[in-house]
Design a protein that fits this description.
Strand content of chain A: 35-45%
Structural class of chain A: mainly beta
Number of strands of chain A: 63
Helix content of chain A: under 10%
Oligomer: heterodimer
Largest sheet of chain B: 8 strands, antiparallel
Radius of gyration of chain B: 18 Å
Number of helices of chain A: 3
Distance between the termini of chain B: 34 Å
Strand content of chain B: 35-45%
Distance between the termini of chain A: 64 Å
Shape of chain B: globular
């Protein structure tokens, strides 16, 4: 008997394109008092105590006890590295996450870090992760607690990985999810990476959701976070009392959801939302399995004495302004730079959630796949299966069950909700329309007594997943090894993985049936698993287990490495050269680690496939010890136990730092023709600038001044961009050299002309007029710049550059970009203009624009 | 066409989560088999210690019945997380045992000598007396759907048994080696 189904006429909400949506995901929270106002004090890493604002994660050298058949420790390490670095790509987060190599157990480490270990876990527990924080909070200048610093985090994997292949989505997403906990995030309820696996809609190709990006950005915001976004605020109450730990979700029709949990007084704030219209609903969290645990296993917020705030009572889900029917919901409009306040809910009590924990599956091939990806062009597979608490009763849809969709263009036909051929699953059929479109779609499951909203219940796509049917090696005309991967839906945006390492794509067949790649270096006989991942989130794992490629080339003997310097005092920095035997350093996939968070590789330069140069810094508080040196490069790994020695010496030698900065521009980029500042530590007090000699690549550069420990020098015009070895001679004991990066000078907008007339307050630019932007450092002096390497943006609109910018006759270093001022530019007194050369941005110049 | 589709998920999709930690669902018989000890006991207190980079909360138990394992009057069990040495370590989903309460606990002692709960909350049964004065063992359902080893979704139902029935079931599982 089929459950009644209503058609749900959906409002397709257009959401402004922006990387940032909002909110507090949910960190580990403290509050300063028990009476309010309740300002969350999160646990997070202190960026000021992290080198380069980077938290490194180290994997225990003990490794797992057992691996999946055919799996290797190297493969597992490449997958862990990739999973951890998932969190490294959030453009609005200041925190960087990087793999730091292996560590030996009991290595003393003082700098905050994340350890990945294979410690004993009881049966039934496969992995866990979480932060270790100081018991007291960091305070602001007024004495208010601001955050609780995470000292280090642990991520524990069960040492028995015999049932968990490292190439699997499960292994990867579990590691990335637990890494999120290690960074300070708890669970969210938006089907993103930090949701539990049951509702998670992430894939290996698209692991992070918008809610995850916002969660990490709220903890570690950079200057760009929040620009152009708005907020929603309000409160959830039950019989007038605030409800603690209610989930409030902002849902746009064809985009991912974002959520926040309420404070003990029921108040909430969802930040970072792109302007647009949202459904907003609030729901109680699934119940805890134990008393004294937070619902849905959230770690309860605590006060500064560690006493928890209990969760509020269970209540029925409500859409704003207070309806159980999403068709009667009022959309909430969000504007940039504003908080839409007063989005309040007064919810009815409910004994317990009857509907929750819904998982959805689709069938891109013959086997069920989670998350559900449905191909608009595969009508015979236009359905999904759902399992969850409260959906089925006695092998039939629960009495009164309705399923509705939020998200445009696709409908559930009459009788489209019914038992599937398996009695445990509900089947939901879909009918596509010309307006269906691709992207996430959300489902609302409801009975007479409860509602469950599943964000991103399915993702609509317009092609099948990529598949790989053959992997074959050969050599090109120059004798280089290449691998041809044959299959379907292998397009220019397809990423090919060899275990956890991305292979460089050389060519793609026009019919998308093959890709030729450069395989990462590996030892002879190594057999990585090959996976294809597409930009729509689908992977070749949707259809089949991966094929392998066996290296019939590469070194057969064991690899080894050598260090030019194997010992440094704590508190110093030096360049160290690393040479390799039977190992090829791979650009972009080489990690050098020194087995301790107190020894940091600040910068790595692959000079050639056999030589690395590294700037290595040993923290001032590092304990004298021997550490494990490791290299992971491509699919090669090598370890040097006890290969590096930390010494404690007094006094600490003079140390030259590679942290150059450009004082004139208040930037870290230094370039020829300008002054740069290098910190120098532990100089004798009587040192003056004229006693110092500074060289770059063996050439002396003018020392301008010494102010305290800041040495200012001039980078000569014409000094080649790129890595440069920097050496300091104080006339005393030798100072370890470091290497720095000299950047090409950034573009500088010198003038903007409208029809040849300089634009100023009296002569505004006109929309539609020919515009000339004169820019210094756009390309090579005297030669036309390549338009493909240039970008010009006026008022938020990228202007087309059709002709190569030409150097000016009176100053060949200045190029003229010609364009027509777009009619899309909004006239104003201050319209920003910026130029980019090879991705290097200019400072913004503001001009008046009129119609 | 649809009847030919396989509902069983490929093994590469294993690793289903319950709670924040990644859990694998264990049946009662599997828990019986994998436990090194199964006890009925009352929590008498707790303390925290640091083992390397881990903080553990130790619960002292006054054991009144031992259904599996050696013969010791007082046992203890650890759960990860807690506050020690000025540090707080938190893992979502870790159960907290209440002082004075009685439980049936499925325990596993690892190579380190520490005794853990099987599957975190899966190994904890709350004991209480019902209206008739009989002892009942109750374990709430895992908050969300779990998958078993084959990847088949299973609904983790709340388990409510008379203590005597649980004792009998565990006992027969111990005798038969935990066969399903």
């Amino acid at each position: 008997m089929n459950a009644p189904v209503r058609r749900f006429l959906v409002i397709a909400l257009a959401i402004a394109a922006a990387a940032v949506t909002a909110t507090a995901n949910y960190p580990f929270v403290h509050y300063a008092n028990r009476t309010g106002p309740f300002v969350p004090i999160p646990e997070k890493f202190d960026l000021n105590s992290l080198p380069n604002q980077t938290v490194y994660f180290y994997v225990s050298s003990t490794g797992p006890d057992t691996l999946f058949s055919g799996d290797t420790v190297t493969a597992m390490l490449t997958q862990l590295r990739k999973a951890g670095e998932t969190w490294n790509g959030v453009g609005t987060s200041a925190l960087r996450v990087a793999y730091g190599g292996l560590y030996a157990p009991n290595t003393p480490q003082n700098t905050p870090y994340i350890e990945v270990s294979f410690s004993e876990l009881p049966p039934g527990l496969l992995a866990m992760g979480g932060p270790t924080s100081r018991a007291d909070a960091v305070k602001d200048n007024d004495g208010n607690p601001v955050f609780v610093p995470i000292m280090h985090s642990v991520l524990i994997l069960n040492p028995d990985l015999s049932a968990r292949p490292s190439f699997s989505s499960g292994f990867f997403l579990t590691a990335a999810h637990e890494m999120g906990h290690a960074l300070g995030l708890q669970h969210t309820f938006t089907s993103s990476l930090m949701s539990t696996d049951v509702t998670r809609a992430s894939t290996k190709a698209a692991p992070l959701g918008i809610d995850d990006a916002i969660g990490i950005s709220l903890l570690y915001p950079n200057a760009e976070f929040g620009a152009g976004t708005g907020s929603i605020t309000g409160a959830v109450t039950l019989s007038g009392d605030g409800v603690n730990l209610a989930s409030v979700v902002a849902l746009a029709g064809n985009a991912q959801a974002v959520c926040a949990l309420t404070n003990p007084d029921g108040t909430f704030r969802i930040d970072g939302l792109p302007p647009g219209d949202y459904f907003v609903y609030t729901h109680t969290l699934p119940p805890s399995v134990q008393a004294d645990l937070g619902p849905s296993e959230i770690v309860l917020p605590v006060d500064l004495d560690g006493k928890p705030f209990p969760a509020g009572p269970s209540f029925s889900t409500r859409f704003y302004p207070g309806t159980a029917d999403p068709k009667l919901a009022t959309v909430v409009h969000v504007q940039a730079g504003q908080a839409t306040a007063g989005v309040n809910f007064d919810v009815p009590a409910q004994a317990a959630a009857a509907l929750y924990g819904v998982t959805t599956y689709s069938f891109p091939g013959q086997v069920a796949v989670k998350p559900a990806y449905i191909n608009l062009n595969q009508p015979k597979r236009s359905f999904l299966l759902a399992a969850g608490e409260g959906l089925m009763l006695n092998q039939n849809p629960a009495p009164g069950l309705n399923v509705n969709m939020i998200g445009g263009g696709t409908v559930i036909p009459p009788n489209g909700v019914h038992t599937s051929y398996s009695p445990y699953y509900l089947e939901v059929d879909f009918a596509f329309t010309p307006f269906s479109g691709t992207g996430p779609r959300h489902l609302v499951f409801s009975t007479g007594s409860d509602i469950f909203v599943l964000p991103s219940a399915m993702t609509l796509v317009d092609q099948a997943p990529p598949s790989i049917t053959d992997v074959k090696g050969s050599t090109d005309g120059d004798g280089n090894h290449v691998v041809t991967i044959t299959g379907i839906n292998l397009n220019p945006a397809t990423t090919i993985l060899f275990d956890g390492v991305v292979a460089s794509t050389l060519s793609v067949a026009a019919d998308q049936t093959s890709v030729v790649v450069t395989p990462p270096p590996a030892p002879s006989g190594y057999a990585p698993h090959v996976i294809a991942m597409n930009a729509d989130g689908q992977t070749s794992l949707f259809l089949a287990q991966p094929l392998t490629y066996t290296y019939d080339w590469g070194p057969a003997d064991a690899p080894s490495i050598g260090l030019s310097i194997d010992s440094l005092p704590a508190g110093t920095e030096s360049m160290i050269e690393v040479t390799a035997t039977n190992l090829t350093f791979a650009e972009g996939s080489t990690t050098l680690g020194f087995g301790s968070s107190d020894v940091v590789v600040k910068r790595l330069w692959m000079v050639n496939p056999g030589l690395l140069r590294a700037d290595v810094f040993v923290a001032r508080g590092a304990v004298a010890s021997d550490t494990l040196v490791t290299v992971l490069s491509g699919l090669q790994s090598v370890s040097l136990p006890g290969g590096f020695h930390i010494r404690n010496v007094d006094p600490v030698p003079v140390t030259l730092s590679s942290d150059l900065f450009n004082a004139a521009q208040d930037e870290t980029t230094v370039y020829p023709g300008g002054n740069a500042v290098a910190p120098v530590y532990n100089l004798p007090p009587a040192t003056t600038a004229d006693t110092l000699t500074l060289k770059l690549n063996g050439t002396s550069v003018p020392v301008v001044s010494l102010d305290g420990n800041l040495l200012t020098f001039t980078l000569p015009e014409g000094f080649p961009a790129g890595p440069a070895i920097m050496e300091l001679d104080t006339g005393g004991a030798a100072v370890s050299p470091v290497f720095v990066t000299i950047e090409p000078a950034p573009p500088v907008i010198q003038a903007v002309l409208d029809n040849g007339t300089p634009v100023d307050a009296d002569h505004p630019a006109h929309v539609g007029d020919p515009i000339t932007v004169l820019v210094l450092h756009l390309g090579d002096p005297g030669a036309p710049a390549d338009p493909k390497r240039i970008r010009l943006n006026i008022g938020g609109i990228d202007e087309p550059i059709n002709d190569p910018p030409q150097p000016q006759a009176d100053n060949p270093k200045v190029d003229a970009i010609q364009t027509i001022l777009s009619p899309l530019v909004t006239p104003a007194d201050q319209v920003p203009v910026a130029a980019w050369a090879d991705g290097r941005p200019s400072k913004i110049v503001n001009i008046p624009v009129v119609k | 066409m649809r009847r030919a589709l396989t509902i069983g998920l490929p093994t590469l999709l294993l690793g289903l989560l319950c709670q924040a930690a990644t859990l694998e669902r264990l049946s009662l018989d599997e828990m019986t088999q994998k436990s090194t000890a199964i006890v009925r006991g009352r929590v008498t207190g707790s303390f925290t210690t640091q083992h390397g980079s881990m903080i553990y909360t130790h619960y002292r138990l006054d054991v009144s019945e031992r259904w599996k394992g050696g013969d010791t009057a007082v046992a203890g069990v650890v759960v990860p997380g807690g506050v020690a040495g000025g540090l707080r370590q938190a893992f979502a989903g870790v159960p907290r045992l209440a002082a004075g309460r009685e439980y049936v606990l499925f325990l596993w002692t690892g190579p380190s000598g520490l005794t853990h709960l099987i599957g975190l909350s899966q190994g904890v049964f709350n004991l209480s007396r019902d209206a008739g004065g009989d002892w009942t063992a109750y374990r709430p359902a895992c908050a969300e759907v779990m998958l078993d080893k084959d990847g088949t979704p299973v609904h983790d139902q709340a388990v409510t048994l008379r203590l005597s029935d649980l004792r009998q079931r565990v006992g027969s599982g111990v005798q038969t080696g935990g066969r399903k």
